[in-house]
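Input (structure):
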Protein backbone atom coordinates (compact mmCIF):
# COMPACT_ATOMS: atom_id res chain seq x y z
CA UNK A 1 0.00 0.00 0.00
CA UNK A 2 1.29 3.40 -0.92
CA UNK A 3 1.14 6.40 1.36
CA UNK A 4 0.54 9.61 -0.53
CA UNK A 5 1.70 13.02 0.59
CA UNK A 6 -1.26 15.10 -0.40
CA UNK A 7 -3.98 17.31 0.93
CA UNK A 8 -6.04 15.78 3.71
CA UNK A 9 -9.78 15.85 3.00
CA UNK A 10 -10.53 16.73 6.61
CA UNK A 11 -7.95 19.25 7.82
CA UNK A 12 -6.83 20.41 4.36
CA UNK A 13 -3.15 20.20 5.25
CA UNK A 14 -0.48 18.57 3.18
CA UNK A 15 0.45 15.41 5.02
CA UNK A 16 0.88 11.73 4.33
CA UNK A 17 -2.62 10.50 3.67
CA UNK A 18 -4.49 7.27 3.20
CA UNK A 19 -7.88 6.48 1.82
CA UNK A 20 -10.49 6.40 4.56
CA UNK A 21 -12.04 2.98 5.14
CA UNK A 22 -15.52 4.26 6.04
CA UNK A 23 -15.54 7.03 3.46
CA UNK A 24 -13.52 5.93 0.43
CA UNK A 25 -14.07 9.28 -1.22
CA UNK A 26 -11.95 10.90 1.50
CA UNK A 27 -8.23 10.88 2.06
CA UNK A 28 -7.27 11.29 5.69
CA UNK A 29 -4.03 12.08 7.48
CA UNK A 30 -3.03 10.18 10.61
CA UNK A 31 -4.11 13.02 12.89
CA UNK A 32 -7.63 13.27 11.53
CA UNK A 33 -8.01 9.50 11.47
CA UNK A 34 -7.02 9.18 15.12
CA UNK A 35 -9.36 11.91 16.32
CA UNK A 36 -12.18 10.84 14.01
CA UNK A 37 -15.51 10.62 15.92
CA UNK A 38 -16.49 7.62 13.81
CA UNK A 39 -13.39 5.70 14.75
CA UNK A 40 -15.24 3.51 17.26
CA UNK A 41 -17.46 2.27 14.48
CA UNK A 42 -14.69 1.92 11.94
CA UNK A 43 -13.80 -1.74 11.36
CA UNK A 44 -10.41 -0.86 9.97
CA UNK A 45 -8.99 2.61 10.73
CA UNK A 46 -6.39 3.22 8.07
CA UNK A 47 -4.03 4.87 10.55
CA UNK A 48 -3.13 2.55 13.45
CA UNK A 49 -5.36 0.36 15.54
CA UNK A 50 -6.90 1.51 18.80
CA UNK A 51 -4.40 -0.37 20.92
CA UNK A 52 -1.49 0.97 18.97
CA UNK A 53 -2.68 4.54 19.43
CA UNK A 54 -2.33 4.31 23.17
CA UNK A 55 1.21 3.08 22.76
CA UNK A 56 2.08 5.61 20.12
CA UNK A 57 0.85 8.46 22.26
CA UNK A 58 3.68 7.67 24.61
CA UNK A 59 6.45 7.02 22.17
CA UNK A 60 6.90 8.19 18.66
CA UNK A 61 9.24 5.36 17.89
CA UNK A 62 6.58 2.80 18.67
CA UNK A 63 4.13 4.64 16.51
CA UNK A 64 6.45 4.30 13.57
CA UNK A 65 6.88 0.60 14.27
CA UNK A 66 3.14 0.09 14.53
CA UNK A 67 2.67 1.77 11.21
CA UNK A 68 5.35 -0.40 9.67
CA UNK A 69 3.65 -3.53 10.92
CA UNK A 70 0.32 -2.35 9.67
CA UNK A 71 1.73 -1.68 6.25
CA UNK A 72 3.42 -5.07 6.22
CA UNK A 73 0.16 -6.76 7.10
CA UNK A 74 -1.68 -4.84 4.40
CA UNK A 75 1.00 -5.64 1.89
CA UNK A 76 0.91 -9.38 2.53
CA UNK A 77 -2.86 -9.79 2.54
ZN1 LIG B 1 -6.06 15.72 8.32
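Output (sequence):
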Amino acid sequence: MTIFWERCSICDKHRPIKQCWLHPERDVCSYCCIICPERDECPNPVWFTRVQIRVSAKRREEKARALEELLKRLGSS
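Notes: Strands lie at 4-7, 14-19, 27-29. Residues 36 and 52 are 15 Å apart (CA to CA).
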